[in-house]
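Below is how a single chain appears once it has passed through the pipeline. First comes the sequence as given, then the structure the pipeline wrote out for it. We keep one example in the README because the format questions we get most often are answered faster by looking than by reading.
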Amino acid sequence: MIKKKSGKPELLVGVADYPCATAAIKNGANALYFGVRGFNMRDLGTNFSAGELNGLMKYLHNNKVKGYLALNTIIFEEELKEVEKVIIAAKKAGIDAVILWDFGVLALAKKHKLKCFMSTQASVANSLSLKEYAKLGIKRVIFARELNLEQIKKAKKVASKIGIEIECFVHGAMCISVSGRCFLSHELFGRSANRGECLQPCRRAYFLDGDLPDFSKKEVHLQGNTVLSAKDLKTIQFIDKIIATGVDSLKIEGRTKPSDYVAIVTKCYREAIDAVAAKKFTPEKVAHWNRELSKAYNREFSEGFFFKTPDDKDITAHQGSRQTQKRVNVGVIEKYYVKPMVAEIKLFDDLKVGDKVLIEGTTTFIEQTIESMEIEHQKIAEGKQGQLVGIKLIDRARPKDKVFVLRERKPNI
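Resulting structure:
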């Protein structure tokens, strides 16, 4: 079992690049999952290359964090050799498990003796499926998002008896379709969701063209509404009930999200899991986490299927994010002085003491509040556009790293 001795479930976070990986590790993730270009369900987003796996896994293992490779798309005959090359690279890098769906990928992963997890794309929703996948050597199943708490609890009892782990999503994007069964993007644009190329037509506003369909006499108002766009999943308010089902891993979706999203969401769920374990899970803490989570990218929030089947109240009326915080690029690091840990920043916008900044680069992720600022060794309270200012950092940065300020954002109504 991957559970720690404390009995806490694993906190698993999706990441797209090194800054996101660093953000997740710094904020308490136990494991990360990620893709390589060409063969994963977020192939239109940022991904690692197969050549980066060695360095990435060394970084994760040095921080006592596990790494899972997502190879969870449909694979065609002519792609099998390339997939095997990726699997061989994953094996050499020390990948802890492969998340898959295609049985050809399963055969190749077993050939190279890699631990296999069955993706949510397989839509596993019952105990008999668990038993069959266990016979095939699957060590963990990521449940379909369509299960409720009672169904998860019952399935977990069976899973424990047959030695298979259970993982479920607790935060992030929800699909209007049953897990792994959406064909809308392919039908409209020829880009298949099941090949990791979803263009998300469900997130768009639609207008009625012609007479209103009957739909069994139920009115359907389009007029520019996002009638297919599901709200995002958020479970932190009842994470104690999910943990009580005995699930082994709690998954945060977000391989297309920026590092500040990863940092906020990981931190909140880390604190919540720890609070449940310490019997200090309170309404006051939930209220605080809810405020923090509203700062990160979201399409409003839903409880998903955990208590009931979602209805029209779980569809968002808005396009885009409803987050209450935005990041603004205010500068770039010109020089970094290692010994004093000071960065010289060229400002594109104003920056002042007390601002919360995020510094991001190829491998950098730093989040801190500016406590002091200088120009030519003279303390200042505020730097202006065009100036070179020095600030002391809490971690190492590099020239060309971007500097962002996290500011309040008012979503459009």
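Confidence is low (pLDDT under 50) at residues 1-5.

See the next section for the split statistics.
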